[in-house]
């Protein structure tokens, strides 16, 4: 059976300092700190040649997908302000600003 501790320093684990957790990354759309689940979103869809990814909350990504087509997302590119100009997205961001970083809820379906 293997030893759990070194025979030279059986309490070595107790002397180690724990690494501080990495600071939370802000969400690209709403600006709130991200929680346990981070979605790496392509602002310009991969099908439209997008390569860059940005961190987002899953609920924020779902809102973008429900409100914009791939063509519209391609036109906006990395411009967050252009996306926030949409009244539905602005209303969502104002509403979610007071929520916990790990908050999830169902979002509206695409309106086609």
What does this structure look like?
This protein has 112 residues and is mostly helical. Helix content is 32%, strand content 5%. It contains five helices and two strands; from the N terminus they run αββαααα. Strands 1-2 form a two-stranded antiparallel ribbon. Helix 2 runs antiparallel to helix 5 (87-96).
Question: End-to-end distance, in Å?
Answer: 64 Å
Helical residues, percent: 25-40%
- Name the overall outline: elongated
Poorly predicted residue ranges: none
Strand/helix succession: HEEHHHH
Per DSSP, what share of the residues sits in E-state strands of 2 or more residues? Answer: 5-15%
Strand order of the largest sheet: 1-2
Number of helices: 5
Structural class: mainly alpha
Q: Whole-number average pLDDT?
A: 84
Q: Could you describe the largest sheet, including whether it forms a barrel?
A: 2 strands, antiparallel
Radius of gyration: 21 Å
| Total number of strands | 2
């Amino acid at each position: 059976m293997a030893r759990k501790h070194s025979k030279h320093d059986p309490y070595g684990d107790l002397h180690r300092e724990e690494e501080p957790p990495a600071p939370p990354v802000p969400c690209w759309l709403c600006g709130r700190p991200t929680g346990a689940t981070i979605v790496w979103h392509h602002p310009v869809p991969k099908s439209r040649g997008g390569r860059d990814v940005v961190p987002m909350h899953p609920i924020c990504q779902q809102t973008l997908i429900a409100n914009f087509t791939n063509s519209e997302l391609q036109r906006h590119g990395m411009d967050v302000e252009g996306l926030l100009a949409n009244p539905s997205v602005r209303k969502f961001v104002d509403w979610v600003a007071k929520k916990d970083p790990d908050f999830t809820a169902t979002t509206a379906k695409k309106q086609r």
